[in-house]
Specification:
The complex is a heterodimer of chains A (about 375) and B (about 210). By secondary structure, chain A is α+β, with helices and mostly antiparallel strands. Chain A has 13 helices and 14 strands. Residues about 340-363 of chain A have low confidence and may be disordered. Classes of the chains: A alpha+beta (about 375), B mainly beta (about 210). The interface between A and B is medium-sized, with 23 and 17 residues.
Amino acid sequence: MSNRQVAMVIDLNKCIGCQTCTVACKTSWTSGEGQEGMWWNQVNTAPGHGTPKDWEKMGGGFKGGEPQKGVRPAQGDFGEGFELNYKEALFEGAGNEALKPIGDEPQWGTNWDEDVGAGDYPNSYFFYIPRICNHCTKPACMEACPRGAISKREEDGIVVIDEDHCRGLRFCQSACPYKEIYYNHVTGHAQKCVFCLPRIEQGVATACSRQCPGRVRFLGFLEDEDGPIHKLVNVHKVALGLHPEYETEPNVFYIPPLSPEKFDDDGNPTGEDRIPLEYLESLFGPEVGPALERIKQGRADKQAGRPSDLMDTLISKNFLDLFGPFTNHPREIERIATELEREPVIVPPSIEIAYRGPGGSSQ
Amino acid sequence: MRSVKVTAIADYAATTAAGWHQIFAETVEMVPAPVEMQPNGFIQANWQDRPYGQLTSLKAQSVHDGTSIAVRLRWASEKPETGGREGFPDGAAIAFPITGEPVLWTMGTEDEPVQFIQWQAMKNKIRSVVAWGIGSSVPGSPVSESVTAGWSQGYWTIVMLRTLAGGPEAATLQPGTETQIGFAVWNGSNEERAGIKAVSVDWSPLTIEA
């Protein structure tokens, strides 16, 4: 058990699906060999097949405390990595060359069904749902590993895979109900989101959170009563874990999406929600209805000029209020790393990878 | 089974070496490693209704020349599986007790470790590992090892060689004594790996001729 738990709240009412978080993660963590089709952060469209394809039908997790059977996703379910012919299409084709993948035509990718959603016009609907490893309180992956290669850090509850002990057996992939673990076929290891732990250790927010232009992601320790996570999860009770029925107690929480109204045949709003409550309950459990009501009440309070701590927290006028104790600027870490290099002291490779991007990236 | 004393071990390094025809081939009964002994509930849940370790027997032979020992294994395998990019390879292992009388199926104990020499179809080499219980295997003391392997007409045949001399994490094999040997086989095309395998019912006595 960890002493305290770092956690994230993702506000689905603010996510615009721009994938900046996805790219921030990709460039920070998964640009190595064997990681071409690896996206530790995804922003999927819901309803949809998700990443990996149809992961919600793949099992794993617990039921009544008992480990459940699970499918091990193949790389094809996540989607293979592929390159586009940028050079030919954008620089050499003189407008005659279309932008297309190089090599075999891809059949699936991490965001293949983006913006498809569900429902019929004019009452179609969708929303975006960013996903990372949930750094669960009861990690099924950790329990499933016969090598003891997966652990939950005492100091912050981040779940990590020790590649010195991992033998690529991939029982973890079957056990994780969120299917957030990839297999690197080059190194022979299971790999997944590390919650940007070298950043967290130095008080800097995760790359996906810091780079989000929509201020969608809140960070902090679950136990920190003054922090945004505790407020949203435990005080206002508007942030919910995804698929609580998997019983792993995820530590990424979601502000569920409010719904636009339906239109009738004459194009008039009907007052009914376009996103079926049953669908949201299938994602976030039975508490989603009351949570939505509390968010609506907060909005109404604000519109009426009444105070709403909930809405003030969600709006987060001050950018750094999003990040709890992780408000250090990424630049600070870069400077520390550089100074260490000058000493000269060996900089841990994880820090170099995360913070020293081309042109002094401040992700 | 007996490890027969021969003059030159090199004559037996090939799986098809003529000398093996003169060496008695012991039939070893194999069974699935029990699902109850798998190390956690997830592995048990995934495999309790799924057949694995279906190999019922293998043939084992052995020779030594006073310095090195060769063990030749032959077992039925519908098709060779190297695992490719994402799959799991066919594999086999022989086991020796390093000290005491460890239980084979639990891969030894804290006080009584077991040495495994493991072969995987995707690799051209074998590796020596030591285990003090399920899931505890780590690379063992360096022992000079080599392997030849071939699949033909529905059978894998492999010859594993190692020095008789051992170390703190590798069993010492002494001519003129009797030790024990155990066996495991993984069917890669059935995603068998780790404890999901066919194992010999128990140790077999191994007499190393003087």
